[in-house]
Every structure is written in C-alpha cells, then in structure tokens.
C-alpha cells in the first residue's frame, strides 16, 4: 500500500523558514517523480513544485520560485520542501504527491503551514 | 500560470448525469493529453479519478469518464449517487513544464 506521510508543518513568523518532509513507502520511491501541492483551507488546490526521479528538472510555481526548494533523498525514501522567506499567503495545507503519467496519482494527508506573527 | 476555468458549482439528482468543464489554453489543456481530474470530500485528501484525459485508475467507478475538445476538458459523472457529492478539480501539464489546477467545482447531489 502506498503511503505518503508529511511532517514539518507548524506556525512560523513572516520571513521565516520551514522544511517539510514526506516519508514514502509501499512503492519504489526512486522510480517516481514527486510533487508538492498546497491548499488554503476552504480554497482550491494549487500546484507548487515537481522534482524528477534523479533530482533533476525541479520546477516551481511562479508564486514560490526563488523562495522554495524541492529535493529528495532516494536512499531515505524522503521528499523535502525547503520554504524560505515565508509570507502570510503561503499559509496552507501542503500535500506530498506521487506522479504517474503527469497526474497526481497518490496523495498524503497533508501538513498545515501557518505563517503569522 | 493562470488557473484553469471551472464552473463554481453544478448539481444533479440521483441517477442523472452531470458534466464539469475545465477550460484552459493551447499552452495547457489544448496542447497536451495530460489532463487529470480529482475528487475531494471535506476534510480528506484529493483522489485521482481520471488521468490522460480519459483513463481511470484501478478502483474508480466507470460512472466517471473524461473527454477533451480543443482547449476544454470535461468530466462526466453518470448515474449520480449521494457519495459523489464533493469538490472536483482538473489539472493539466503546461508548456512551461509546470502544472496548473482549475479553481474547483462543488458538486451537489439534490
């Protein structure tokens, strides 16, 4: 069974940093591209970032480019999202997602990030 | 990276069919066959319902089907059931090698 378990969310002040982690199991992690998708509570889904299997080709939404960095450790079956210079508008639930044929095939349960003073 | 356009809400009675549209541009929906659809119930993570415009993951009911014409993709749900009441989102791969979601559609089963 595929499991994606996010961690690292919490309350952070504007301008601060946070690193999200996603522990993957139930599949060969190194064989799949991975995404981060976020959702402001009560609002819609927004794609954030994608990383390819070999850590190449990282792509970002314009809203986070230059502030967020996606990475992965295939030996640890873990996906990361380093978030710097956080803003109030980054407040959201962040989902870790496994890609299959350019679709968001499997989703974690999400971790809530709140940016507030 | 403008969001794809979906109707804010649709509704239908049990047993009926409904269609949700998802309109983009030639740089996303119209340019690629990588359109997918997601169902999200309150308090839950999204669930993939359709990928590659028309394909269903294992376990997804064949009451759910997808199509595309030009820059508009569509999700059709036939034989509406109470448990289909949820939010639905489309997404597409884009020419910028990014992904873009639709704004979401709330489906109400009357």
Descriptive report:
The complex is a heterodimer of chains A (117) and B (110). Chain A has no helices and eleven strands. With 117 residues, chain A is mainly β. Chain A starts with a strand and ends with a strand. The model of chain A has no long low-confidence stretch (mean pLDDT 96). The relative contact order of chain A is 0.31. Chain A has strands spanning 3-7, 10-12, 18-25, 34-39, 45-51, 59-60, 68-73, 78-83, 92-100, 103-107, 111-115. Chain B is mainly β. Chain B has no helices and nine strands. In chain B, strands 1, 3, 4, 7, 8 and 9 form a six-stranded mixed sheet that branches. The relative contact order of chain B is 0.34. The interface between A and B is medium-sized, with 24 and 27 residues.
Number of extended strands of chain A: 11
- Write down the overall geometry of chain B: globular
Element string of chain A (H = helix, E = strand):
EEEEEEEEEEE
Supply the helix-strand structural class of chain B.
mainly beta
Order of helices and strands of chain B: EEEEEEEEE
Mean pLDDT of chain B: 96
How much beta of chain B, percentage-wise?
Answer: 35-45%
Helical fraction of chain B equals under 10%
Question: Strands, helices and their partners?
Answer:
The complex is a heterodimer of chains A (117) and B (110).
Chain A (H helix, E strand, L loop, with lengths): L2 E5 L2 E3 L5 E8 L8 E6 L5 E7 L7 E2 L7 E6 L4 E6 L8 E9 L2 E5 L3 E5 L2
Parallel strand pairs in A: 2-11
Antiparallel strand pairs in A: 1-3, 3-8, 4-5, 4-9, 5-6, 7-8, 9-10, 9-11
Chain B lengths: L8 E4 L5 E6 L11 E6 L6 E4 L13 E6 L2 E6 L8 E8 L5 E3 L3 E5 L1
Parallel strand pairs in B: 1-9
Antiparallel strand pairs in B: 2-6, 3-4, 3-7, 5-6, 7-8, 7-9
């Amino acid at each position: 069974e595929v499991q994606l378990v996010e961690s690292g969310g919490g309350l952070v002040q504007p301008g601060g940093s946070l690193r999200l982690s996603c522990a993957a199991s139930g599949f060969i992690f190194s064989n799949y591209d991975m995404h981060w998708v976020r959702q402001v509570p009560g609002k819609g889904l927004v794609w954030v970032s994608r990383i390819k299997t070999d850590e190449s080709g990282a792509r970002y939404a314009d809203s986070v480019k230059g502030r967020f960095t996606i990475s992965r450790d295939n030996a640890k079956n873990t996906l990361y999202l380093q978030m710097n210079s956080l803003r109030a508008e980054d407040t959201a639930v962040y989902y870790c997602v496994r890609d299959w044929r350019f679709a968001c095939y499997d989703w974690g349960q999400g971790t809530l990030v709140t940016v507030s003073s | 990276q403008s969001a794809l356009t979906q109707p804010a809400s649709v509704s239908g009675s049990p047993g009926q069919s409904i269609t949700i549209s998802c309109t983009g541009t030639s740089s996303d929906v119209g340019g690629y066959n990588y359109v997918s659809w997601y169902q999200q119930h309150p308090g839950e993570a999204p669930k993939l319902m359709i990928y590659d415009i028309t394909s269903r993951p294992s376990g997804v009911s064949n009451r759910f089907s997808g199509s595309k014409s030009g820059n508009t993709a569509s999700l059709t749900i036939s034989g509406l059931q109470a448990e289909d009441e949820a939010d639905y989102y489309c997404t597409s791969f884009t020419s910028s090698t990014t992904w873009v979601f639709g704004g979401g559609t709330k489906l109400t089963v009357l």
